[in-house]
Design brief:
The chain has 431 residues and is an alpha+beta fold. Helices cover 32% and strands 25% of the residues. The protein has seven helices and 14 strands. Strands 3, 4, 5, 7, 8, 9, 11 and 12 form an eight-stranded mixed β-sheet that branches. Helix 4 packs antiparallel against helix 5 and helix 5 packs antiparallel against helix 7. The longest helix has 45 residues.
């Protein structure tokens, strides 16, 4: 049975017929439209007890979660007081328990309770209606019903997947103001082991763990009227293990794999080009695949920042490969050799376009005679020794990259995990 919707609000008022067991004179003078103690102008205090039977799933796409609860409301209605002797109850009969039925009217007053942040609500009726009303001789009334609610939870996903979500369940009275009806804090059974709360071991969520649940009573104002609100706040912490294996670990492996090009010879251009380009394409494919399976949000998540970090390192490796190829060109080395010659007035003799000595007999006449001796060269170096130094300087780029890339990536990871993982628990707290 799905609850009726009135102006977008889901009612959970249980309609019962109170016509069993009580004397006819009580039923005749009882007015269901009047709340208890209305003549005394005292507020009716409703004590709320909630037993959480199940929780989940939690959905980030529409920011909702499901919760299955046994909702119990207790109040005192002096008009329902009776004597056990008049009703013929035995010594072991402490109260009258009425079955949960679904008529179109009710013979006793019930609080018009509804869930403020509910999207959908359902009272269970299989195999019979899951609910009852218990009335004690002193007028103490207990209403218990099993309800499944799909409630809104405005999630903050900037720390995703290291986020902690605070999901409320808000209960209010639709008609009565705080001066007429007031909710009182009771206990929430089956959640967290606290002074009056115990944890149920069989409550499991696929992506979250239930850390704690706290209650709070407050007053809220709508259009100048103040109403009492009973709020339950569930603290849900996301499991990071799945996301570390599925997202973080593959990204780290791709980045480390891209560093192997620094250990490949500078002249192995095809191998280095294949490795760098493949690493860039692989990290992009991983990012697209993960984003297609997670909530699409306009805000940047912690996972997006880490993917951007990994992509920047892989792309930086591609840039480093381009620099090595540029400075390793033979024509560039030849131009540097000529510059060295003109700067130090050193005869380099016959030289081809690759910066190598010509030994063929058809050397152009414009070439210079070479002096292979160390005399006449600044610092006692020949041009050919200088050329070897130029090639070694090109290899210096790889040697620097072998140290700087891993070290800077390690420092970036330390800063990332400190900022998000260690700080997430202190950021999301229940007041």
């Amino acid at each position: 049975m799905t609850l009726t919707r009135m102006d977008g609000v889901i009612w959970i008022t249980v309609l019962v017929t109170f016509c069993w067991g009580l004397p006819d004179e009580i039923i005749q003078i009882y007015k269901t439209s009047m709340r208890p103690d209305h003549r005394l102008k005292e507020k009716t205090k409703v004590n709320v007890t909630m037993f959480v039977n199940n929780l989940g799933p939690v959905r980030e796409d529409d920011m909702t979660y499901n919760v299955d609860i046994f909702l119990r409301q207790e109040w005192v209605d002096s008009r329902t007081q009776y004597s056990k002797e008049e009703l013929g109850l035995g010594p072991g009969d402490e109260s009258i328990v009425l079955p949960f039925v679904e008529p179109y009217n009710t013979s006793i007053w019930l609080p018009d309770t509804y869930f403020m942040n509910s999207v959908r609500s359902q009272i269970h009726t299989v195999m019979t209606a899951n609910g009852y009303i218990e009335i004690r001789p002193n007028g103490h009334v207990t209403l218990s019903v099993r309800v499944t609610i799909t409630a809104l939870c405005h999630m903050v996903l900037s720390y995703f997947p290291m986020d902690i979500q605070m999901c409320p369940l808000q209960i209010e009275s639709y008609r009565y103001s705080s001066a007429e009806l007031e909710f009182q804090e009771s206990r929430i059974e089956g959640i967290v082991k606290d002074q009056v709360v115990e944890r149920r071991d069989n409550i499991r969520l696929p992506h979250f763990t239930l850390k704690e649940a706290k209650t709070k009573v407050m007053n809220v104002t709508y259009f100048g009227n103040t109403y009492s609100r009973f709020e339950v706040m569930f603290k849900l912490e996301r499991y990071i293990g799945y996301y570390f294996v599925d997202c973080y670990f593959p990204a780290i492996l791709i980045v480390v794999l891209s560093w192997t090009q620094f250990f490949i010879g500078k002249n192995a251009t095809p191998a280095r080009a294949t490795l760098t380009v493949t690493s860039v394409l692989t990290i992009i494919t991983l990012i697209v695949s993960v984003n297609s399976r997670t909530a699409r949000l306009s805000k940047i998540k912690a996972l997006d920042i880490y993917f951007a970090l990994c992509l920047s390192y892989v792309f930086a490796g591609l840039v480093e490969f381009g620099l090595v190829c540029y400075f390793n060109k033979p024509q560039l080395i030849a131009r540097k050799a000529h510059h060295y010659h003109h700067t130090h007035n050193f005869d380099i003799g016959t030289m081809n376009e690759n910066g190598e000595k010509r030994t063929a007999p058809d050397v152009p006449e414009t070439t210079l005679d070479i002096d292979d001796s160390d005399e006449g060269c600044c610092n006692g170096e020949t041009f050919w020794k200088w050329r070897e130094r130029a090639i070694l300087n090109v290899s210096m780029i790889d040697r620097v990259a072998r140290v700087m890339f891993p070290l800077s990536f390690l420092l970036a990871n330390v800063a990332y995990w400190t900022a998000y993982y260690l700080d997430s628990d202190s950021t999301f707290t229940i007041n």
